């Protein structure tokens, strides 16, 4: 026993302490604490830096064994279900703050502090729940916040600390604020209401009056029951008339302390930061001053020669491969633990079919460091050659594997752990496969998307496959799928591959995915592409996954009826074409068609095919001949159109309907275009013709589920609006501001004709030039389009540039930018590469110049609709609407909407889309609602 009181440590008797930090309250104070600033890639970070400094100060000053930062998840909570107007008039977050929200969460994790949020509840509810749990376990709780709503939590064992005023808040401070003790704060707030949160309260009663009433009557319920005793007539009337409103207000302001919280208190232990994780965060965000402060304390200073050894890029290149087969749960647990420890894990799946929607899961591979990867077989079947040598058993018996349910149970927490980044190559495919066995994955990175954001089409189309990237960046030849499964008629499915072959192939995929991630992620900062990846393309991956999973319902009966109609029309056209030619021939044969047109009929051949040297019968040649008044080429064009509609759409789409869902599930591509536009494949739903009545009829087969409708939301003339904005064309901007007919205005200025009573042909010519300018149209192209002499077309273009000289300045400046850098940028920073811009071949150079002119416009439109798509699901959830986003077709979004919510959904979608970007001209969205896509568009 100590001899003197001085020998007794306070730590012997005081309880453990828990600090609960109101992270959402910190964010806006951090945002306003520093002037606007960006990191090298253009991403705003003033709030991130302010938050980081505040968090560091708190961690340095606090004396606690446990800490957690709690955030709001979204605007929609159980309170908005009770009162839809709750916080409804609060403005949207500043545009430059929105991309900082996820980075602020990253800051918390970088300091190895627990970061908690939960859909449907506010941060205050989680704080209240954790405070109750901790107090019940004997912990002393400090809530770090200046939010008055949290004052209701103050009691023995729970205190508030205002970090802005650097002062504790106890019962006395609560009484000073509300005129009552903490246990009656809710009653006072219920009466007084809160205009900032749209809590209605009782009219005519403020905080002071409410405190007097609660002090006199004891609590809200007693006051309302005895409202008839109130002497003041108006107050008595309001308390009686608005009693239910007061009770509703009480439910809105009272914090829930019984939330099923997502993280246990045991996960809140104070831990030192992982040095490399913290260093990576500070370096990525350009926080050099913070890094200098923590080096030597939280982060060891790099010693001479050690930096190269710890260089993640060097490690990615040099690491030797060491792959392991995982066939029991204990081994799997060791790999899962290693993934948790690493904080980043590459994930890849193997399936028994190529389709993401239909392929069954065969196995999963993981990589936790370059060269360290494993394969978990789950559904391999007996009989693979070499199985006996690997397993030590009979090859006719099933190979030793972990049961799927056990594997799912072991991986579930890892794949959803917000502190572990899951990396995939084209991870959208893996998300589909894993979801079908009950595994959701978040957060994610995608090395295919990273490669696309960094290099686009600089090295050619289709260069972001894993095999290509491994060869290009590591000079490593990946094991080809055909080397494992064969090809052609002898190809086998992956579930019949031996485990040895499966291990080498699958583990290598995960390994090199992780190596690419080590290589690409730092380049985002170096190439100033973080904002494009983090705010535009990465968020699209889970969004597109959900859209692909939803699919769209297609009525096969409509398609079959159209196929019959088209077949009859094709037959009639064949008869008509043969009659015109004077004999039967194969209309689909370019050779035979050429003989009929040029040898027998003596029509003038436009050009020869570059491949065969034969006279071309391409669409452009036939269109020229038809424009000259020749009927047979015109009928051949019709025949080709109906043949394509039938074979490519009405026949093929029936086969594309998933028998399990009755819906067609397209695959959206993020990496297939030079401008950031999405592509659609298997089937391509973006290419359904809409310029002909027959093509539009195909959309009649796309229908809503019973009780639902389809909503089409389409940007109006978005590319022309972008031209007006980026080129600063004053006249067009004024026309768009007034909502005028832009093509009529253009024609009026070019041809000196009043808009009223204008010849429709003049408007048509102006429209052709307006849209043609976007694509760098030539006099030759415009002449063909308008069926006018080339000289007249050139005169139109010259007149256009004279009337709108800003567009010519833009075009020249854009071409100069492309020549200087090899790329042009969209408004949002995306690089659109322009290979061929310095080509000595005039044709190739001209093509590249036209692409350069168009890319910022088309790419900017693609970025804007992505911004809208990313925002819409959250907005729908906050509004309590049940619509699902199904398709994106260039400037159009298609939703499936409960019929009763159609008007509200249309209004919300229009508002979100029109607010997706701030231009010098208004964005306008047209919406339509119907049972079919054709009717909605």
Automatic annotation (TrEMBL):
Keywords: DNA damage, DNA repair, DNA replication, DNA-binding, DNA-directed DNA polymerase, Exonuclease, Hydrolase, Nuclease, Nucleotidyltransferase, Transferase
Record GO biological process: DNA-templated DNA replication; double-strand break repair
CDD domains hit by this protein: DNA_pol_A_pol_I_C, DNA_polA_I_Ecoli_like_exo, H3TH_53EXO, PIN_53EXO
Domain 3'-5' exonuclease: 323-525
Subunit (UniProt): Single-chain monomer with multiple functions.
Family: Belongs to the DNA polymerase type-A family.
Protein name: DNA polymerase I
Organism in which the protein naturally occurs: Roseospira goensis
